[in-house]
């Protein structure tokens, strides 16, 4: 373990289906954080319920965390202004994704974070968050069809967002390709609207499906650990 890693904080993004954590420049999705909490400050962003978060806090304390700080959505941060009427109700994952983008460059941003759900948020040139959308991600879309229709049985799968066939000759592909094409069409619409309003704006794709979605806008920035980067910007040495 390097000296930098030994004294670094532990950052945790607790999502709906995975935990991503970082110490120093090391970013991992999955287990391993339990052994690294000892004698460190831990900064957590969680979209889970309060009971689950309390269990996580106890686990961190048992593992010797120096202190545990929970991220929350705020009204503003360094010129970035939360666009929600009630700022605290904006998902903390979305707020931190906005902070990450704003910390890289102050200007207009389209922030697309593609995890279990896909969130899309807009920032204008002044740092005003304009709002955004939330849609089901690939797995949620496929599970919805599989679980709510009598015969639409298909295995949930991950496929590329490269151009797909306009039709399918089996139910598995019909569901998978249909869901992917619906997501791609929505993202393309958002990209077109954003470019019309902010011709020189910036685009970032994050989350587990961010890299595959980025084929829709090849010049975009890709940062799969978008929430972690937001935590580091907000709570790192220069983020207080």
What overall form do the CA principal axes indicate? Answer: globular
Largest sheet: 5 strands, mixed
Q: Strand-residue fraction?
A: 15-25%
What is the H/E order? HEEEEHEEEHEEEHHEHEH
Query: What count of domains describes the coordinates?
Result: 2
CATH superfamily of the largest domain: ATPase, nucleotide binding domain
Mean pLDDT: 90
What structural class do helix, strand and pairing data support? alpha/beta
Annotated CATH topology of the largest domain: Nucleotidyltransferase, domain 5
Q: Please tell me how large the radius of gyration is.
A: 19 Å
Tell me the helix content. 25-40%
Q: What low-confidence regions span 5 or more consecutive residues with pLDDT below 50?
A: none
Question: What separation lies between the terminal Cα atoms?
Answer: 26 Å
Q: How many individual β-strands?
A: 12
> Helical region count?
7
CATH level 1 name of the largest domain: Alpha Beta
**Annotated CATH architecture of the largest domain:** 2-Layer Sandwich
Spatial ordering of strands, largest sheet: 3-2-1-4-5
Q: Would you kindly provide a written description of the structure presented here, covering whatever features stand out?
A:
By secondary structure, the chain is an alpha/beta fold. Helix content is 34%, strand content 24%. The chain contains seven helices and twelve strands. The strands form three sheets. It has a five-stranded mixed beta sheet, with helices on both faces. The chain has a five-stranded mixed beta sheet with strand order 10-9-8-11-12, sandwiched between helices. Helix 2 links the parallel strand 4 and strand 5 (67-70). Helix 3 (92-104) crosses helix 7 (226-235) and helix 4 (138-148) crosses helix 5 (171-197). The chain starts with a helix and ends in a 5-residue tail after the last helix. The model has no long low-confidence stretch (mean pLDDT 90).
């Amino acid at each position: 373990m390097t000296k930098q890693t030994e004294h670094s904080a532990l950052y945790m993004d607790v999502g709906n289906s995975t935990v991503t954590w970082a110490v120093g420049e090391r970013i991992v999705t999955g287990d391993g954080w339990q052994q690294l909490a000892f004698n460190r400050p831990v900064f957590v962003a969680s979209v889970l319920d309060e009971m689950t978060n309390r269990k996580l806090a106890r686990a961190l304390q048992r593992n010797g965390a120096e202190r545990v700080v929970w991220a929350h959505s705020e009204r503003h941060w360094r010129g970035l202004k939360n666009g929600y009427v009630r700022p605290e109700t904006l998902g903390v994952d979305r707020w931190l994704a906005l902070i990450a983008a704003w910390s890289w460059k102050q200007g207009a941003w389209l922030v697309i974070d593609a995890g279990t759900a896909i969130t899309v948020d807009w920032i204008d040139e002044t740092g005003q968050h304009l709002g955004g959308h939330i849609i089901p991600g690939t797995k949620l879309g496929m599970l919805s069809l599989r679980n709510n229709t009598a015969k639409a049985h298909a295995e949930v799968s991950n496929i590329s967002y490269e151009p797909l066939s306009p039709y399918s000759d089996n139910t598995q592909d019909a569901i998978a390709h249909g869901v992917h094409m619906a997501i791609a069409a929505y993202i393309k619409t958002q990209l077109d609207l954003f470019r019309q309003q902010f011709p020189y704006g910036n685009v970032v794709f994050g989350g587990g499906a961010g890299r595959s979605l980025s084929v829709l806008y090849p010049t975009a920035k890709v940062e799969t650990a978008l929430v972690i980067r937001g935590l580091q910007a907000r709570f790192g040495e220069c983020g207080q």
